[in-house]
Amino acid sequence: MKKVLAEYGAYLEENGKSHHTIKAYTNDIQAFFFDTRIKFGGYVVAGDIRRWIKEMLTPKEGRALAVSTINRRLNSLRGFFVWALEKGYVQADPMRDIHDIRVADEEQEKIMWLTEEEFEELLERMRTMPIKSRGVDPEEKYRRDRAIVYILTYTGIRVEELSNLKINDLDMQFRKIRVVGKGRKVRTIPIATLLYHDLMDWLDFRSEVAKKKHHVAESLYVFYSQRSNQLSVRGIQTMLEAYSTPQKKLTPHMFRHTFCKWMIKSTNNDIEKVRRLAGHSHISTTARYIKDSYTDLANAVESLPRI
Fold it and tell me: d(Cα 29, Cα 78) in Å, to the nearest integer?
């Protein structure tokens, strides 16, 4: 099984998938064979898949998995079995008649984003939160973290795209960012005026830091860490988590959701514009942001006349 997964991982890498995506796919595939106790090479039929779905939705022990997680696992299996059939590892595709679980309205609440008020509170929290890391300059960390938050919020780029963002990807003269996304697809995102000024502040400050730190001077990337010339995906995730509150845990994808949600509102539901900016392959992915959240619905009910 390990050999087959390694071969599949190499195939995914050749097709432009990131290491983070490949790991997620292979973990999902391993979860299926582990949970069902089916050994790879044995027969897998659609009934096995359906029983697995039922167990994830209504487990005998523990909490049920979110519909989005189950659908992600099914998508991982779908791609794997198509590849395995072409390679001759299986004789039939058990996923052929298996469809994603339809998402109920309540599932929309799992798409978490920041309100404008929450975003302002976050910026203030970042400004005032003490730095506990030994040897880390508080101002340098604040300026870097602030620039990261602004880019994530005002471009909607993925965390892997941010980690790989290079200085020459920024065209400050014409105010646009070149982003290499999933499948090595390249898209260009305009830089909003607010983001432009914040980015210029960071780049100017970064230039001064480069005069004192060798690894920064050699770095081709927009963002670096304390010891490395590139800030890793995990480093970005950890940084954002540190600014979380008990009410809301911050994740990189939350800022992508925020961008899409704010853009849907500012473009009056023009999902094609938002799809192109976010780099979504399918319009259905973008369409999720048109739906009102439970909070929106609750506010609408509260606005009813009080007689």
Answer: 10
> In the chain, where are the structural domains located?
2-102, 116-294
> What DSSP string describes 18-60?
-HHHHHHHHHHHHHHHHHHTPPBTB---HHHHHHHHHHHHS-S
**Looking at domain 116-294, which CATH architecture does it have?**
Orthogonal Bundle (1.10)
**Which residue type is seen at 178?**
R
Give Cβ neighbours of residue 251 (< 8 Å, ≥ 6 apart): 112, 237, 240, 241
pLDDT along the chain (307 residues), means of 10: 90 85 91 91 90 90 84 92 92 91 56 87 88 79 96 94 96 94 87 95 97 95 94 94 87 91 84 84 71 57 65
Tokens of 21: 């995506």
For 1, 51, 212, 278, the CA distances from 45, given in Å and listed in that order, are 18, 10, 61, 37
- pTM of the full predicted structure? 0.62
2-102 to CATH, choices 1.10.150.130, 1.10.10.10, 3.40.50.150, 3.20.20.70: 1.10.150.130
Q: Do domains 2-102 and 116-294 have the same CATH topology?
A: no
| Sheet containing 170-171: order of strands | 170-171, 176-180, 186-190
173: tokens are 């003269």
